[in-house]
Task: inverse folding
């Protein structure tokens, strides 16, 4: 919660929110009682802002897990391997001939079983099959306990955790939910921008 509040007050969020807020305010004023040119400007700017924020959210918050933060907390957990596919790095679409596609990544469909937390299913992408999961049914992941949607496959997990993964029961996957989620990229800008727009429109009408 504290991190989310700090994120709303980050400089990049405030700058983006100012631009989005102006676009929303121009659109609202144009719809309410402003001149027609203001409506067109607001509509164009709002459409551009929404398309841009949507692209940011899709790129950074798709089906694949996010990576770990530099210097952030991390912990190991065993995981069940459901499937291994090759996908395009940019689009996430299935690649049938990965050797002929330099932009292909391995996509690992996993159920992570962390200690003291409900198991969850997630897709982790990596340019290499670092744990030879094409031929194994168990893996060891490293994740952020505070933001468990951040999951990676370590190159050399500790032997203790490899042993735990080999002992993992498939029944543990039956209670798995979807991957834990935080606010997608761009959501802070969108929410703060809407607040800025509401404030601007309110001030304009009070002073007008």
Result:
């Amino acid at each position: 919660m504290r991190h989310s509040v700090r994120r709303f007050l980050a400089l990049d969020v405030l700058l983006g929110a100012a631009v989005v807020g102006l676009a929303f305010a121009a659109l609202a004023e144009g719809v309410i009682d402003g001149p027609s040119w203001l409506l067109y400007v607001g509509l164009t700017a709002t459409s551009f802002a929404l398309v841009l924020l949507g692209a940011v959210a899709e790129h950074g918050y798709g089906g694949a897990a996010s990576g770990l933060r530099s210097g952030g907390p991390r912990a190991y957990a065993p995981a069940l391997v459901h499937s291994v596919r090759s996908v395009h790095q940019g689009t996430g679409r299935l690649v049938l001939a990965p050797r002929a596609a330099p932009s292909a990544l391995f996509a690992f469909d996993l159920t992570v079983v962390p200690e003291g937390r409900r198991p969850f299913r997630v897709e982790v992408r990596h340019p290499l099959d670092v744990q030879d999961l094409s031929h194994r049914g168990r893996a060891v992941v490293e994740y952020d306990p505070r933001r468990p949607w951040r999951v990676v496959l370590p190159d050399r997990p500790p032997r203790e955790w490899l042993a735990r993964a080999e002992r993992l029961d498939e029944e543990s996957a039956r209670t798995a939910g979807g991957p834990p989620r935080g606010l997608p990229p761009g959501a802070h800008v969108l929410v703060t921008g809407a607040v800025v727009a509401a404030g601007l429109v309110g001030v304009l009408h009070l002073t007008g």
